[in-house]
Design goal:
Toxin ADP-ribosyltransferase, Chain A, domain 1; three-stranded antiparallel β-sheet; 8 helices; 12 strands; alpha+beta
């Protein structure tokens, strides 16, 4: 197994590949992509019970959440529009034990409603991250960022003009030199208008992270190859979600 690392070290997935294998960039339609539009308050009211359940179902989440909570209060919380739960969710996500299993789960939890309801035990973290990014976007106003990834050991099927999503919470860096510390086989240059600078909430603030939600769409504007290295440029093209307030539909769907 080769390891594909979406830099800065906060997003990784393992793919079965060889030196010449290709990983497609597509719309990642199996991912869980809820934006919780119109139901953020209702979801917040359900969090205590849901969080209690997921702490039992997901010991990793429970353990890292406690660790992130301790770190958050140790630092001394900054003045922020986020609730403590939202801020701690961001801290939880950026910790090394969490980002990979969480994003692996996000990437497939949208295969079906049943998959999300029965097998996705990161519902609280997914909602709080989405809600935190929306709150920060609302507070800071519309803003796009030019960010970078460096990828090691994987080539991508990427055709200029295609529309794609990452289908997971994608951690990127504002600084190209940081991105390239994690790989130069493929370097992504991305214009994101849904991604948010979260460095003050990160366990690794020096990585200058911009976190992109799963539902942002991008147009592939350029793919260039130089020897064994590639550069892919993406430009924000809006948003797309298959799911909307899915957890609130559970009683309706049975």
């Amino acid at each position: 197994l080769d390891l594909l690392v979406w830099t800065p070290a906060l997003l990784a997935m393992t793919v079965a590949t060889t030196a010449t294998s290709m990983v497609p960039l597509d719309m990642a339609l199996d991912s869980f992509d809820d934006q919780y539009r119109g139901c953020r308050r209702a979801m917040t009211e359900l969090l205590p019970a849901l969080n209690h359940l997921e702490f039992q179902q997901n010991p990793l989440f429970a353990r890292v959440w406690v660790k992130a909570t301790d770190e958050w209060w140790r630092r001394g919380p900054p003045v922020t529009p986020l609730s403590p739960a939202q801020a701690i969710a961001l801290m939880t996500y950026t910790m090394k034990d969490m980002y990979k299993p969480f994003n692996d789960a996000v990437h497939v939890a949208g295969r079906s409603r049943q998959e999300y309801r029965d097998n996705f035990h990161f519902k609280v973290l997914h909602f709080l991250l989405t809600d935190a990014l929306a709150t920060l976007r609302d507070t800071r106003g519309p803003r796009c960022h030019h960010v970078f990834w460096g990828v090691r050991g994987v080539r991508f099927q990427a055709r200029p003009g295609n529309t794609v999503r990452f289908g997971r919470f994608a951690s990127t860096s504002l600084r190209q030199e940081i991105a390239q510390q994690f790989g130069t086989d493929t370097v992504f240059q991305v214009q994101t208008c849904q991604g948010v600078d979260i460095r003050e909430f990160s366990s690794k603030p020096s990585e200058e992270e911009v976190l992109i939600p799963p539902f942002e769409t991008f147009r592939i504007t350029s793919v260039t190859q130089e020897g064994d290295r590639a550069q892919i440029q993406l430009r924000s093209a809006g948003t797309f979600s298959k799911y909307s307030c899915e957890w609130l539909r559970r009683d309706i769907m049975g």
